[in-house]
TrEMBL record:
InterPro entries (UniProt xref): AB_hydrolase_fold, Cutinase/axe
Domain of life (superkingdom): Bacteria
Ranges annotated as spanning the membrane: 20-41
Species classification: Bacteria, Bacillati, Actinomycetota, Actinomycetes, Mycobacteriales
The UniProt record lists the keyword Transmembrane helix: yes
Organism whose genome encodes this protein: Rhodococcus parequi
Alphabetically ordered keywords of this record: Disulfide bond, Hydrolase, Membrane, Serine esterase, Transmembrane, Transmembrane helix
Protein's UniProt keywords contain Disulfide bond: yes
Protein known as: Cutinase family protein
Pfam families linked to this entry: Cutinase
Homology family: Belongs to the cutinase family.
Length: 328
């Protein structure tokens, strides 16, 4: 074989390697662009809004059509939509929170307690579904629900400065209600903490045992967002503990969580290397476990009271004890 023949073959191999390297670089860039776009489209958890400046001195009376108490219920994932009727929600007839709101509507007049179910997207897209499942991301859904809840409180407070509030929610709705309550308790919410009668959350993904009492059987774990704190997938940000818990509302907040419900009873610090083995051992509890959908039958005391009955009774007691502002 001639030297020129060997040189030609060698040059061909070099050109092949260069083409392969160029293709690899371009493919890597394309993947990075796709992932970056994926994250941008899926959304991030928004930063808290700046504190609301103090309002004027409350008047002695408020308009005649203002309720004494504003009850705010935030449904869980797939239990609401943006066009739902907040006073007669029908987006999901099996919505867990209907077992709280309907008894309150039957017991109290709208003048005493206006029961409002926050309409929001209430979805949780699977970030690795191929093809995409068409759902809104958890981050975007949660942000929309939080904005809708705060907007309601701001509008109601502007019209009815003496109305007091009661917040409750389930699952994703519990995260939203809890986040809004935490902001109010920290002094940077849409109303003063002294206007909030109570906060009751069921299966809160940010459940912190130190933040408020847990009603029912002992629960060893924490909310999934605490368990997986710092984990970020497209559209899913595990935000960890609420700094300061419920703040000034800690003495008026209650939590309900069923043992082995992975949303609110996940192993603490599951991503910590030393906890991998113990965390993995709990995965069998969550496999094919329907407990997250069974709070309407989950008993929390010796009288046979279910989770939803307990929250409804607790809310009714708060409304009974609430002040009755004068009306103009």
């Amino acid at each position: 074989m001639s030297v020129s023949g060997r040189g030609t073959r060698k040059n061909g191999k070099n050109r092949g390697r260069k083409r392969f390297g160029l293709v690899a670089v371009l493919a890597t860039i394309l993947v990075l662009v796709i992932v970056a776009g994926w994250y941008l489209l899926a959304g991030r958890v928004p930063e808290p809004a700046p504190p609301t400046p103090p309002g004027p001195t409350p008047p002695a009376a408020q308009p005649a059509d203002c309720p004494d108490v504003q009850v705010i219920s935030v449904p869980g994932t797939w239990e609401s939509n943006v066009g739902d009727d907040p006073h007669n929600p029908t987006a999901n007839p099996a919505s867990l929170m209907l077992n709280v709101t309907r008894p309150l509507q039957e017991r109290f007049s709208p003048q005493r307690a206006d029961v409002y179910t926050v309409p929001y997207v209430a979805q949780f897209s699977n970030p690795v579904a191929l093809p995409p499942d068409g759902q809104e991301s958890y981050n975007n859904s949660r942000a929309a629900g939080t904005a809708a809840t705060i907007d309601l409180i701001e509008r109601r407070h502007a019209e009815c400065p003496l109305t007091t509030y009661l917040l409750t929610g389930f699952s994703q709705g519990a995260v939203i209600a809890g986040d809004v309550a935490a902001r109010i308790g920290a002094g940077d919410g849409p109303v003063s903490p002294d206007l909030v009668l109570g906060v009751g959350v069921i299966a809160d993904g940010r459940r912190d045992p130190a933040a408020a009492p847990t009603i029912g059987p002992p629960v060893a774990g924490v909310g999934a967002e605490l368990s997986l704190a710092g984990l970020k997938l497209p559209g899913i940000t595990m935000t960890g503990v609420r700094p300061g818990g419920f703040g000034a509302l800690a003495d008026r907040a209650v939590q309900i969580c069923a043992p082995s419900d992975g949303i609110c009873d996940a192993p603490a610090e599951a991503l910590k290397v030393g906890n991998w083995l113990s965390s993995a051992s709990r995965l069998t509890e969550y496999y094919n476990n329907p407990i997250h959908a069974m709070y309407n039958t989950f008993v929390v005391d010796g009288n046979g009271t279910t989770a939803t009955e307990w929250i409804a009774n607790w809310a009714a007691d708060k409304i009974d004890e609430a002040p009755a502002p004068a009306h103009e």
